[in-house]
């Protein structure tokens, strides 16, 4: 099922990464360890923002977590504030990734929805939420 929602202003910690998508989970764990070592409260589920196709093995990504408090980043970890925005989203479990993206893309095309940024996958345990930022 495809829905829309408002994502509030977010303070996020991200590591920018270019390479194999499968390594993003390792980078997510590295970032989580960095945040815990710096005693920062994580404000939600880990995510990946895609700057290249989510279907390619190699790409450019931001791997991150929302934060509940301000902290200074370092040479590897960037702290960024993203303004609130509206997203079109759906979720999938298991091997439904391609079908979930295709359903979002079909919905965008059929309904003339303006996508204004890069897709984001938010990892909620065994399900993944795919978000397209829209007007």
Question: What does it look like?
Answer:
The protein is α+β, with helices and mostly antiparallel strands and 135 residues long. Helices cover 21% and strands 42% of the residues. It has an eight-stranded antiparallel β-sheet, covered by helices on one side. Strand 7 (120-124) and strand 8 form a beta hairpin. The radius of gyration is 15 Å and the shape is globular. 21% of the residues are buried. The model has no long low-confidence stretch (mean pLDDT 95).
Please write out the topology.
Elements: E1 3-7, E2 10-20, H1 24-37, E3 47-50, E4 58-67, E5 78-82, E6 85-93, H2 97-110, E7 120-124, E8 127-134
Antiparallel strand pairs: 1-6, 2-4, 2-5, 3-4, 3-7, 6-8, 7-8
Features of this protein?
135 residues; 8-stranded antiparallel beta sheet; alpha+beta; 2 helices
Q: Structural class per helix/strand content?
A: alpha+beta
What is the H/E string? EEHEEEEHEE
The end-to-end span amounts to 19 Å
In which order are the strands of the major sheet placed? 1-6-8-7-3-4-2-5
Mind telling me the C-alpha Rg? Answer: 15 Å
Q: pLDDT below 50 for ≥5 consecutive residues: which ranges?
A: none
Shape: globular
How many β strands by DSSP?
Answer: 8
Largest sheet: 8 strands, antiparallel
Helix content: 10-25%
Task: Give a concise summary.
The protein has 135 residues and is an alpha+beta fold.
